[in-house]
Amino acid sequence: MNEDNNRNINPYEEEEESSIDFGAIFAALKKQIRLYLIIVPIFCVLGVAYALNQVNYYTSTVMLAPEASTGGASSMGGLASLAKRFGVSGRSSSSAQDVDAILPDLYPDLINSVDFKTKLFEVNVHHKDKNDNMPYYNYLLKYQKRGWIGELFGGPMDTIKVEPVNPFELTKKQDNIAKAIDKNVVCDVDSKTGVITITVTDQDAYIAACMADSVRGRLQRFITDYRTAKARRDLAYQTKLYKEAKRKYIDVRQKYIAYSDANQDIVLESVRSKLEDLENDMQLKYNSLTSLDQAVEAAQAKVQEFTPAFTTLQSATVPVKKAGPSRAKICAVFLLVGILLATGIALYKEDQIKPLLGLN
């Protein structure tokens, strides 16, 4: 019986012996208070220095709502080619609703594509109240603040050199600028509502708003060009045929008028026959011209039908307050790291790591 009682009691005694002694841990930390007085102030200074080195940045946001498409099969074909180009796969369906279901998902891929980002190189920007128009590429290359550490220890800023942009093979400098644009320009699409949100971040509040509006406009034109590509080709072809038919009609009409005036008083059967032939030819050319004129109008209507409309829910505005950085949070993180480091070293010196982890 005594042995059984001892067996029942021993586990509790072992648990008590292995419990964490918070008094010993607190005493150990108090004994190493000098570590805190050394490490924590150092991390506070580092945190303040790092926080002051961060450059203020601003964000401007644009929100769009695209209309539902009614483009049918032609719209589907243009969308499929667009998706294929940017490596996005969509559902295969003949209904316009299915086409619209995948359209918003393409917008972030379009903005992240090299073709789209390199097109932003040429957007003209300028600081507020200054006539210093420059391409966005030059602005990112030359006029980005680097913080006081970068100014003291960083090398000189790159000189601006105009280089032809080839999206297939970017230079190292162009690739760096494209990566910077990739971070600065963000597009999100709400899968439920289809609302497109474009956010542009920049060190200059005015330029952030200008670029947000430019990206919105270019995205709309980019999508419109793809959605109406086939319809615009058809319109160009029908217009070409119409102009050619009109030229032929004018030529045959002038021949008819000239021949009729020259033989006005002649009643020969050959003259009548020739006039009838010219009149019939003129009538055929006129019928063809009328038919092509209707075809051109139909092609114009189709371009309009396939042109997507976007409702601007929120326009680009110049932000009043900075979006970051939060220097107070940066200092708090450095302070926390300093405290944790000092605590770890103190526990290690006082041999309190293993008891704390329950390894004894």
Automatic annotation (TrEMBL):
Coiled coil: none annotated. It comes from the Bacteria. It is found in: Cell membrane. Keywords: Cell membrane, Membrane, Transmembrane, Transmembrane helix. InterPro entries: Bact_polysacc_biosynth/exp, LPS_length_determ_N. It is a multi-pass membrane protein. Residues 19-76 form the Polysaccharide chain length determinant N-terminal domain. It holds the Pfam family Wzz. The keyword Oxidoreductase does not apply. The chain crosses the membrane at residues 35-52, 330-348. This is Chain-length determining protein. It comes from Segatella bryantii (Prevotella bryantii). The lineage of its organism: Bacteria, Pseudomonadati, Bacteroidota, Bacteroidia, Bacteroidales.
